[in-house]
Amino acid sequence: MSAQGHKVRILQVEDSPLDAELVLTELDHDGLDYEVRLVDDEGAYLDALDTFRPDIVLSDLSMPVFSGERALELLRGRTADIPFIFISATLGEEAAIEALRNGATDYILKQNTARLASAVRRALREAEEQAGRMRAEQELIRAQRFESLALLAGGLSHDLRNLLQPLLLAGDTLEDYADDPRLARLGALVRDCGRRGLEMVSSMLLFARGARRAEQVRLGALLDALKLLMQGSVPRNVAMEVDVVDPEIAFEGNHTELQQCLLNLCLNAIQAMPDGGTLRIETAQVTLAEDFFAEGESTAPGRYLRMSVMDSGVGMTAEVLQRLFEPFFTTKDTGTGLGLLSCKRIVASHGGLMRVRSRQDEGTQFHLYLPLNVEHDEHGDPLVMEASLQGEAERVLVVVEEATQLSLLADTLDAYGYQAGASQSGTAALQWIEAHGVPDLVVMDADMNLFTGVRTLAALLEHGYTGAVLLLARPDSPPNLDELPQLERLHVLEKPIQSRALLRKVREALEGA
């Protein structure tokens, strides 16, 4: 076998069957595993380039109806990647130098073919190394593009979060007006639109940055983000169907990596349907028994989420299926051979496994199984009986720079029985304490500009505040607390904030104090 993992495909350009046989005898003596196609005219040569797809060309210099120079010219007009070796009895020194200048890899004299096998092996090895360098360069370019996208997404995300955040708080406030059904419905609509918008912003930002943190992944949000990324990539002759068994299913994992995995599978499926077809993403909850797991897989029977990406495309042969997860193996002209291997590793890192089913002309199915262990609520928290969210007139100082958010947060706390004070800066917070005394709890935005959340917190501690602190922070930009003294009752709540998540955290912080 060759270093490429398959028989070396040799295209031999020669009009003498005897000379062709002598050349192949040298390769047989060396033990090279190959298959060969012999041609001696231009038409057969061009057909072999298209259908045989050789790894290397071995060519005589002159023939009655064709020439080696013409064969080299035609090959280099198509690609510079396939090695081309002249084998001739008449190749002089000047002709050899000219041949190398024109793109030949090497030349061998028919009178001295002893080094033919080593020349072929060296040419194949150098071609494979060159292909590897090109793949690495393409991956570097791709990484640089993602880095640029990350910078752009990071600049936009903060402003978009601030625009969408009030929709969540205002929606929750309107929904509390149960005596007016129209206001309640409007509140639910506003809140859901704000939440969906923030999920999309977060998903695109995490995808661009390649974050690797563990989090609660909600199935509905994962597939909504996938549909958003697929917009513009699905051709008109492909119908995309998405079936979500329960959008509120949540599990611990990495949203970004799973999104990348599903995106790779979907794009592969589209490429497998050049004449159109159906791309279907389907989800289900299943129970796997011990006999489901193959030899070498960790046996972990139980409940799993199955996510399936299915297409009605050309399918795969048994040979391709067998090599599907080999590094750098690809059936695409511009593929890297790393996409499916990356998907398999992502699923394995989540404690899951993959199954593939495919037949030629009958399409392909990729099934991803991810373990489900603990039930979670709509916010991704473990499902527990919720205690009362009502306050007992505790004084809560809210310090948020953005006026709309500050007003909505203070109103929400007032509506649930707290005495909420509102300060739009760290300086104003200190003035509030001097005027009203030390509060029972401080709720503070970590992303303030003029007087940062960390600096404000340090100043509050200097003024004698020893109570609990609830810090509102972006998940992609946690605050640096190294310059602060040790805080025993510091609680961090990730933005974007929803009213009930805020109220639960407020109760937790106050009861802990």
Write the layout of secondary structure elements.
Blueprint: E1 8-13, H1 17-30, E2 34-39, H2 42-51, E3 56-59, H3 68-78, E4 84-88, H4 93-101, E5 106-109, H5 116-175, H6 181-209, E6 215-218, H7 219-230, E7 238-243, E8 250-253, H8 255-271, E9 277-288, E10 302-311, H9 318-322, H10 339-349, E11 353-359, E12 363-371, E13 395-399, H11 403-415, E14 419-423, H12 426-436, E15 441-445, H13 453-462, E16 468-473, E17 490-494, H14 499-512
Parallel strand pairs: 1-2, 1-3, 3-4, 4-5, 7-9, 13-14, 13-15, 15-16, 16-17
Antiparallel strand pairs: 6-8, 9-10, 10-12, 11-12
Helix pairs in contact: 2-3, 5-6, 5-11, 6-7, 7-8, 8-10, 12-13
How does this structure look, described?
The protein is of the alpha/beta class and 513 residues long. It has three domains: 8-114, Response regulator (Rossmann fold); 216-383, Heat Shock Protein 90; 395-512, 3-Layer(aba) Sandwich (Rossmann fold). 44% of the residues lie in helices and 20% in strands. The chain is built from 14 helices and 17 strands. It has helices at residues 17-30, 42-51, 68-78, 93-101, 116-175, 181-209, 219-230, 255-271, 318-322, 339-349, 403-415, 426-436, 453-462, 499-512; strands spanning 8-13, 34-39, 56-59, 84-88, 106-109, 215-218, 238-243, 250-253, 277-288, 302-311, 353-359, 363-371, 395-399, 419-423, 441-445, 468-473, 490-494. The strands form four sheets. It has a five-stranded parallel beta sheet with strand order 2-1-3-4-5, sandwiched between helices. The chain has a five-stranded mixed beta sheet with strand order 7-9-10-12-11. A five-stranded parallel beta sheet has the order 14-13-15-16-17. Helix 13 (453-462) links the parallel strand 15 and strand 16 (468-473). The protein starts with 7 loop residues before the first strand and ends with a helix. Mean pLDDT is 80; it is low at 374-386.
